[in-house]
């Protein structure tokens, strides 16, 4: 009997008991749908995190001043101002480093006509915008000459701009920052929340020189709160970290064996941790969904065993008229596999529609890849073969004489 | 009536040769001890091509066991069985399936048709197992059904047919691979007298016109009377093996 004919026989057997076939299939449908849905949600979360990381800027180090301690109390990193703008300039000269952006920050009260708004004020250099992967919505960023002259110019984050200006175009307008007039030269494109959930768009940026002299003030002139360092390529990150450390130790005249008075953090490594966490979540979701697939598979095995018992006489008749063991095995295995494959297909459609509904209702990013579809399908077939084999084997190994005599 | 191509059987050559065949079943009693129950004792039997043999005996005489062994549905415990000069005892399960498919046509008391499968597909199934395609199988099945007078019932399922019609479907199924041997296990057991007569005449015709060897198990003397040779079994032994003589059988009945 060729395979094509056996498929026909298996299909006929499935059609003869539609309700049972349908119910068995339901286990498979739910299992595959759950796997597809969970994987797409997990994949969506992962993609979302990757996007956020890309927006943060790539190949970044953050360098913060070291901790100070007094009488056994540590005041935490940044509590002394050991880093300076000149450190940042020196680091920018390193061959592996693309650009640096020294930062001082504080909060400030803003006024525009009758409106006022309090936000974080960041004093930095023009390189900050490329290092932090910021894009300009309108106007420009401030320039090196603004920096040199400590001009009163400001670039607004999109949320700040919205709160101060509403629908009005802020570029060219003058706002007051702690009562000093500043010219708005540009507005940044929205970035959304950072990985830590902070709104990155509610802030303003002014030249670090202006900030130091006029707004935030500085206890130790030239010192900075932190600096961002962008590497030229991801491959150089390890070398760059060593180079930065050596350079700073040298500049700060730290003797051998003494602790650093600064800390270099690899932001990409932090991002990797976040991506890793998302991956684990994705896998956990998939694993939970797989349990339902497993339960569906056990359901199939259960039904196939009942079916073999119920059809013992039919098996006997088929053997008497010439079916060999392989043919019987193939037929029952095919029945189980067809349930799985058909259930898998329906489950796939259901899972994809479910993912679409979730993305619409919960406003979540859902990603469905061809690989996921293939995986769900492959898994469904594997379940069919795995759980269909034992009942099929049982059917095939019946002795014809016993099967025929079975009532 | 059934102008099927003539079998290449050479009437008179041994089709079935059984020597010193024993069959016993072992089962465990409540104490876990193995109990051996011997059903057939040292059976020697030769059936030539073209014979029409009735095997008779009371229930428990071993006739059904013998039939199952003849049909390659069961294997003997000891002794040998040659079917068409092949020693069945040495064959693998696949080869046995092939023999059942090609060399033997089965007709059962309970018809044993596939439920919810049309008469046509029931008859065609052995051809499918022989590797013939579905459409070709159906074509041949339709032809056989036409010859057994069931062309109008080809698309009926077994439960829509009378007992006699079902048995004709079963006989058609047995014939489709043109086997040299038909084994009929109480083929009229579920049929009324008139239908039984028709079925037996059909067997007789197949035997006479096409030289198909027929081995029939029955416990009814008037059914056995259609056969040319009569074998009686009692407690697993052959106690009678003679060419049939209707008068003597009828004498025995009375």
Primary descriptors:
heterodimer, A: 407 residues, alpha+beta, 2 domains, six-stranded mixed barrel, two-stranded antiparallel sheet, 13 helices, 19% strand, elongated, B: 254 residues, alpha/beta, six-stranded mixed beta sheet, four-stranded antiparallel beta sheet, 10 strands, 28% strand, disordered N terminus, disordered C terminus
Description:
- The complex is a heterodimer of chains A (407) and B (254).
- With 407 residues, chain A is an alpha+beta fold.
- Chain A has helices spanning 3-16, 18-56, 85-92, 127-131, 144-149, 158-165, 208-215, 237-251, 267-310, 312-320, 325-361, 370-396, 400-405; strands at 60-65, 67-70, 73-77, 97-112, 115-124, 136-139, 153-156, 174-177, 180-188, 203-207, 226-231, 262-266.
- In chain A, the strands form two sheets. In chain A, strands 4-5-10-7-9-8 form a six-stranded mixed barrel. Chain A has a two-stranded antiparallel ribbon with strand order 2-3.
- With 254 residues, chain B is an alpha/beta fold.
- Chain B has eight helices and ten strands.
- In chain B, helix 3 (119-129) packs across helix 4 (134-147).
- The longest helix of chain B has 18 residues, at 193-210.
- At the A-B interface, helix 1, helix 10, helix 11 and helix 13 of A face helix 2 and helix 3 of B.
Q: Give the strand order of the largest sheet of chain B, numbering strands 1, 2, ... along the chain.
A: 6-7-8-3-9-10
Name the helicity range of chain A: 55-70%
Structural class of chain A: alpha+beta
The portion of residues forming beta strands of chain B comes to 25-35%
The strand count of chain B comes to 10
Helices and strands of chain B, in order, run as EEEHEEHEHHHEHEHEEH
Task: Record the strand order, biggest sheet of chain A.
Answer: 4-5-10-7-9-8
Helix fraction of chain B?
25-40%
Distance between the termini of chain A: 27 Å
Decide which structural class fits the backbone of chain B. Answer: alpha/beta
Overall spatial form of chain A: elongated
**Count of alpha/pi helices of chain B:** 8
- Total number of helices of chain A: 13
Largest interface: A-B, 25 and 29 residues
Number of domains of chain A: 2
Count of distinct strands of chain A: 12
How large is the share of residues in beta strands of chain A? 15-25%
Largest beta-sheet characterization of chain B: 6 strands, mixed
- Broad shape of chain B: globular
Sequence of secondary-structure elements of chain A = HHEEEHEEHEHEHEEEHEHEHHHHH
Largest sheet of chain A: 6 strands, mixed, barrel
């Amino acid at each position: 009997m060729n395979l094509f004919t056996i498929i026909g026989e298996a299909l006929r057997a499935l059609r003869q008991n539609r309700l049972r076939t349908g119910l068995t299939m339901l286990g498979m449908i739910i299992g595959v749908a759950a796997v597809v849905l969970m994987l797409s949600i997990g994949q969506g979360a992962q993609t979302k995190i990757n996007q956020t990381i890309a927006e943060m800027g790539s190949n970044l180090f953050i360098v913060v001043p070291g901790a100070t301690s007094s009488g056994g109390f540590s005041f935490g990193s940044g509590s002394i101002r050991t880093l300076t703008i000149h450190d940042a300039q020196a680091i920018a000269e390193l061959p592996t480093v693309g650009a640096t952006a020294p930062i001082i920050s504080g909060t400030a009260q803003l006024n525009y006509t009758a409106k006022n708004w309090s936000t974080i004020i960041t004093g930095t250099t023009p390189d900050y915008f490329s290092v932090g992967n910021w894009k300009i919505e309108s106007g420009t960023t401030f320039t090196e000459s603004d920096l040199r002259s400590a001009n009163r110019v400001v670039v607004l984050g999109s949320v700040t701009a919205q709160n101060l200006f509403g629908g009005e175009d802020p570029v060219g307008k003058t706002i007051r920052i702690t009562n000093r007039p500043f010219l708005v030269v540009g507005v940044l494109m929205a970035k959304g929340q950072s990985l830590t959930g902070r709104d990155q768009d509610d802030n303003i940026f002014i030249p670090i020189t202006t900030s130091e002299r006029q707004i935030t003030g500085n206890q130790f002139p030239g010192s900075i709160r932190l600096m961002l360092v962008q590497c030229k390529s991801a491959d150089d990150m390890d070398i760059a970290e060593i180079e930065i450390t050596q350079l700073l130790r040298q500049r700060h005249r730290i003797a051998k064996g003494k602790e650093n008075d600064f800390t270099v953090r690899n932001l990409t490594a932090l991002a990797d941790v976040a991506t890793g966490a998302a991956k684990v979540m994705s896998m956990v979701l998939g694993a939970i969904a797989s349990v339902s697939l497993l339960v569906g598979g056990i359901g199939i095995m259960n039904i196939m065993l009942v079916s073999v018992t119920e059809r013992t006489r039919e098996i006997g008749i088929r053997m008497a008229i010439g079916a060999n063991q392989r043919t019987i095995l193939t037929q029952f295995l095919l029945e189980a596999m067809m349930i799985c494959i058909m259930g898998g297909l329906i489950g796939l459609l259901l899972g994809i529609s479910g993912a679409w509904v979730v993305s619409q209702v919960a406003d979540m990013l859902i990603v469905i890849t061809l690989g996921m579809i293939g995986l769900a399908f492959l898994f469904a077939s594997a379940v069919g073969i795995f759980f269909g084999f034992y009942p099929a084997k049982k059917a095939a190994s019946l002795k014809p004489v016993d099967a025929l005599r079975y009532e | 009536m059934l102008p099927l191509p003539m079998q290449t059987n050479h009437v008179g050559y041994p089709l079935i040769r059984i020597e010193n065949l024993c069959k016993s079943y072992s089962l465990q009693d409540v104490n876990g001890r193995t109990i051996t129950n011997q059903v057939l004792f040292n059976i020697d039997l030769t059936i030539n091509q073209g014979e029409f043999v009735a095997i008779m005996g009371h229930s428990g005489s071993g006739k059904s066991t013998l039939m199952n062994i003849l049909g390659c549905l069961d294997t003997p415990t000891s002794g040998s069985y040659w079917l068409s000069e092949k020693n069945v005892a040495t064959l693998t399960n696949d080869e046995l399936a092939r023999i059942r498919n090609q060399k033997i046509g089965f007709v059962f008391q309970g018809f044993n048709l596939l439920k919810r499968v049309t008469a046509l597909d029931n008859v065609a199934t052995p051809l499918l197992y022989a590797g013939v395609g579905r459409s070709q199988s159906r074509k041949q099945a339709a032809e056989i059904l036409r010859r057994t007078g069931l062309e109008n019932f080809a698309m009926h399922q077994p439960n829509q047919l009378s007992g006699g019609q079902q048995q004709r479907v079963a006989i058609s199924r047995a014939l489709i691979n043109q086997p040299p041997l038909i084994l009929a296990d109480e083929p009229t057991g579920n049929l009324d007298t008139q239908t039984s007569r028709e079925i037996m005449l059909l067997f007789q015709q197949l035997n006479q016109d096409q030289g198909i060897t027929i081995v029939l198990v029955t416990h009814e003397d008037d059914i056995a009377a259609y056969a040319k040779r009569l074998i009686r079994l009692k407690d697993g032994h052959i106690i009678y093996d003679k060419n049939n003589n209707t008068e003597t059988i009828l004498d025995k009945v009375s």
